[in-house]
Description:
The complex is a heterodimer of chains A (309) and B (277).
Chain A: E1 2-13, E2 16-27, E3 31-35, H1 42-49, E4 57-62, E5 65-66, H2 71-76, E6 78-81, H3 93-104, H4 110-116, H5 132-143, E7 150-154, H6 162-177, E8 181-186, H7 190-193, E9 198-203, E10 206-212, H8 213-220, E11 224-230, H9 240-244, E12 248-254, E13 257-262, H10 267-276, E14 281-288, H11 291-299
Parallel strand pairs in A: 3-8, 3-9, 6-7, 7-8
Antiparallel strand pairs in A: 1-2, 1-4, 4-5, 9-10, 11-13, 11-14, 12-13
Helix pairs in contact in A: 3-4, 3-5, 4-5
Chain B: H1 3-14, H2 18-42, E1 49-50, H3 51-56, H4 58-77, H5 82-87, H6 89-94, H7 100-132, E2 136-137, H8 140-167, H9 171-202, H10 213-223, H11 225-236, H12 247-274
Parallel strand pairs in B: 1-2
Amino acid sequence: MDAIALRGVTKQFGDVTAVDGLDLAVPEGEVFGFLGPNGAGKSTTINMLLDFVRPTSGEIQVLGRDAQRESVAVRQRTGVLPEGFDCYSRLTGRTHVEFAMESKGVDGDPVELLERTGIADAADRKAGGYSKGMRQRLALAMALVGRPQLLILDEPSSGLDPSGAKEMREIVRAEAERGTTVFFSSHVLGQVEAVCDRVGILRGGSIVAEDSMDGLRDAVGGGERLVVDVTDDAATVDLSAVRALSGVTSAEAVDGEVVVSCDADAKTAVVGAVEDGGATVENFRTEEASLEDLFLAYTEGDEPREVRQ
Amino acid sequence: MTWTVVARKEFEDTIRSRWLIGLSVLFALLVGAAVYVTSLIFGSGGSTLSSTEVLRAFPIKDGIVTTLIPLVALVAAYNAVVGERESGSLKLLLALPHSRADVVAGKVAGRGAALAVAVVAGFLLPALVFVFSSTFAFEAVAYVQYVFLVALLAAAFVAVGVGVSAAVSSDRLAIAAAVGVYLVFVALLGAVQGSLGLFATFVGWPEWMPLTVQQTTRVLRLVNPTGAFKIVTNRALGTGLFTGPDVRLQISGLVMLVAWVVIPPLAGLIRFEEMDL
């Protein structure tokens, strides 16, 4: 069964379309990274999963239940780390977690959860004095209350230092091993890369790419790029022969250079084919192509659409 | 239904609010001072003064309670929901399995209870003075009834404040609405009642009005929570609650106070249910 299923979901705020005909399915037990630049519609989508925001059209099911009509039942079995939240400044960290436990009707030791998220020593201080990172850790502790079947984390690393972000990933991994479905959003690929089974990249309110991490790595093309410096303008070089070579994923003229994504053992053939195309090769070098490049290619195109989050 | 969990959190949060603590202390000091002044004025000559007579004296009944209690209650309630929306703590609250109805009901109950504690605290010191001083006779039944009714008045204004807070989309709108509610119920309706009486006496009550001037004034008193409160407490501090020729009016007053606790939050909830957070 799918833990999260969206079918044709659109959300309009006035005349601004924040989410545009979104289809998405996250199977149970998966760690899904929901990626996209700020303003792509990630938070709006998450807010619709939680019934904070109602879709203009489309259908949303979470844990097999209607996200709108059965929202309380959904949230009973879901742990949420919202984005842009605040704590109750007059209440202590312990009181916050106790409140989450009472709300979900579960027993337990609040300090145990605060220990897991690393703020047990501040348990009896008022949350008004917490730093942004500590508030984030407090909200994560509240999200973990009652061993949720689904964790929804909206930009969980924001406000955390690198070691805090690492601890966050470790908690996500531990929860995933327990069988929890994890759905988390980020505008930085690096934060989800290490823990995700699959990612979806959102832009302008629609999914522009959806793949497993392995699939994305394959798409990058063996992880290497060959940059060939030619004496003439690279744009005049005929690259069809290069593209025809086995092991070559793509070949483009970029800023006067020929950039080829290919397997490592195809390099010699590529250089030969570029010369056959009518160019004089001056120099060439290999560059490590990363998932980040791929992510940026998806998210930083020419026509960024204005979208309210 | 998890509104009791929300109510308990609200109570703990509100009782720690500096505004509420400050205004409650002010309230307690004013009640204490009024008791003292009243006893100086009426208590001379060695005769004992009953606690009911002191409460019935103008400074407490009309000067302090019906002006300050609505103010404290509205201050405690106007940002109950919209304040949490603007700060973002509402997301933390609604990430947990509460319905929006649970949130509104919990807010009314929790903040109403916090106000009740403040009211009881405000009347506690005078009660001790009444009990232990030989100048006073403590009439416990009327006193407890009165304190309960003051707490009910506070709950009515908390409910109005929470209802407004759930219905509006910004803090500023909530403040404006709360100020409006205060002016209408504490000042304006009373002034209208007074001028209707003058109008009827000096100009004459128009024939075409379906209600007589007495009936109109009575309706205005009843629909106003402070008016309904006065109807009920005048008897509670007089011949006794539910005695006298106007028993039905007293019951109507009590019902109106309860209606003010229930209806505004429901109306606010209808708007709140439709909103995107």
